[in-house]
Design goal:
By secondary structure, the protein is α/β, with parallel strands linked by helices. It has 21 helices and 15 strands.
Length: about 525
């Protein structure tokens, strides 16, 4: 029996375009690790390898799989994946097709009506393995818990409790990938980057995020020994950068465990790997010594969700973050030579133009105090988030063209014009770097020593013609984007809204209830 696991190619992402960055598909690598002992597995990463849909289908056909699994970890993978399936079937290639990931979990009725056989709901490793086992034994897979499928016109769905002990998962099959494909050119031509998770779940409650609905509010973490084993594995494969994909690398009530992990990384000599993390600014601000420990362990880049320069907007986002904490965190990290990467969001339905100006002013001020990189995203209600279902209820989504759900396009009706949001998100990004670099042009020394910045600057200098071309076409492009969204053929109708609202209420009632029951039971039984 053969299994093909596919990441479709949605086109060049913002990260690839701006930074030359492409990371491995961790979800598929984890699925491969879960079934490789019982079947032959091939990972086809069309995005990383730049494969066309025709080339992707050709590789699937040559491998001749019994099952093809597609990841929809992001909404932008949906349409290219569906096109591949349709073209496969037109050519008479008819394996069982399985979709999984964030998007499919929260939109499974829409996925199934496109002719997909099975959708895996939530965490996929155990569920997918059971599907494969039953197929090998010639058994019906419809009784597998944790899947959605169609029975005539009826959609059936069931939920499965989470994996409480993440150490029980097999090590992801990183060795099935070519390390040379996964790069971060902005930090060096020889950078080879792996994606590793040390935990699942998020104890926070940001209204624009789908992480808690997917992974739960409880922070489940792998043991330090298990994380060290994975790091040794990818290091031996040739990876010299690791992106820890955890939404929060440190949470308050597990602070000491994280310090122990960092100490283990140092003691095992794994601090010669370069690390990227995602971390909350208030954690750094509360624990000033943490920045020093992160640097000692090899952390080179820290991404923080700044989100807004308006305290009112931060409250509406349920971010639970103070602006002073952001400033303090950036300074503490910068003092240790760690590149600081801040993400902000504009265009929320409760944001005014005054709020947005406050955000731009705040970002520029942070740039003077150590912020190195900024990502200005446009508020995008992603399936699974509270913001998505509020937008459904308010009928404010302008399109369900999932290609546009990339946080780079305005896709909902808000107080501001769409073209202005699109224009500002890019223009203010360019202005951030222009003003920051102007200090160097004027002969002002960098306040903080960050060696990797010199590599990044060489990369940026090489890309300046590309950036200038994009900047010059921005005014016209902004109006074309607005027209595309307003004229989108993929409008929401009442029936689709009703379907997606039912998914949301069922998920809250069933999956999250089951999730917390399993976690609580695990706490009582854990030695």
């Amino acid at each position: 029996m053969r299994i093909a696991l596919v990441r479709a190619n949605p086109g060049e992402s913002g990260y690839a375009s701006a930074y030359g960055y492409i990371a491995p598909p961790l979800g598929l690598v984890s699925l491969a690790g879960a079934v490789r002992d019982i079947t032959e597995v091939k990972i086809i990463d069309a995005e990383a390898r730049g494969l066309t849909e025709k080339e992707t289908i050709g590789e699937i056909d040559t491998f001749d799989p019994d099952v093809v699994g597609f990841t929809t970890i992001a909404s932008t993978y949906v349409n290219p994946s569906l096109r591949i399936v349709r073209k496969m079937r037109e050519r008479g290639i008819n394996p069982i097709v399985v979709f999984g990931g964030h998007h499919a979990t929260f939109t499974y009725p829409l996925i199934l009506r496109e002719g997909i056989d099975v959708v895996v709901i939530g965490e996929g490793e155990r569920i997918f393995r059971e599907i494969v086992e039953r197929l090998k034994e010639g058994k019906d897979i419809r009784s597998v818990r944790g899947i959605a499928y169609r029975d005539g016109e009826k959609v059936n769905v069931s939920y499965r409790e989470p994996i409480v002990n993440l150490d029980n998962l097999p090590i992801p099959a990183y060795d099935l990938l070519d390390p040379n494909v996964y790069k971060a050119s902005i930090v060096g031509e020889n950078a080879r980057i792996a994606s590793i998770e040390t935990s699942r779940g998020c104890p926070y409650n940001c209204e624009f995020c789908s992480a808690s609905a997917m992974w739960g509010h409880v922070w489940r973490f792998k043991s330090n020994e298990r994380v060290v084993d994975e790091l040794k594995f990818v290091k031996n494969l040739g990876y010299n950068w690791v992106f820890f994909v955890d939404d929060n690398f440190v949470v308050p009530y597990k602070y000491e465990e994280r310090i122990e992990l960092l100490n283990s990384i140092i003691e095992e000599g794994l601090n010669d790997i370069n690390y990227m993390i995602q971390i909350r600014a208030d954690i750094i601000a509360k624990h000033p010594k943490l920045a020093e420990k992160l640097a000692e362990a090899g952390v080179k880049i820290a991404f923080m969700g700044i989100e807004s320069g308006s305290e009112e907007v931060l409250k509406a986002m349920r971010k639970g973050l103070k602006k002073n904490d952001v400033l303090k965190a950036i300074q503490l990290l910068s003092e240790q030579g760690i590149i600081t990467y801040g993400g902000v969001i504009i265009g929320a339905p409760y944001e005014s133009r005054k709020d947005r100006k406050a955000t731009y002013k705040f970002v520029q001020m942070l740039g003077d105090h150590g912020l190195d990189v900024v990502q200005i995203s446009i508020y995008t209600p992603l399936p699974g988030s509270d913001s998505f279902y509020r937008a459904l209820k308010n009928r404010s989504l302008l399109t369900i063209d999932w290609d546009l759900y990339d946080v780079l396009h305005p896709i909902m009706r808000v107080k501001e014009k769409l073209w202005r949001l699109y224009f500002e998100s890019r223009e203010k990004t360019y202005m951030f770097y222009f003003k920051k670099w102007l200090h160097n042009i004027e002969g002002k020394a960098e306040k903080y020593s960050k060696p990797i910045l010199s590599t990044g600057k060489r990369y940026v200098l090489h890309k300046i013609p590309h950036y200038m071309k994009n900047f010059l076409k921005l005014p016209v492009e902004s109006f074309l984007v607005q027209r595309r969204i307003l004229n989108s053929a993929k409008k929401l109708n009442d029936h689709t809204i009703e379907i997606l609202e039912k998914v949301y209420t069922r998920h809250l009632a069933s999956y999250l209830k089951m999730f917390h029951e399993a976690i609580n039971q695990g706490k009582h039984t854990k030695s």
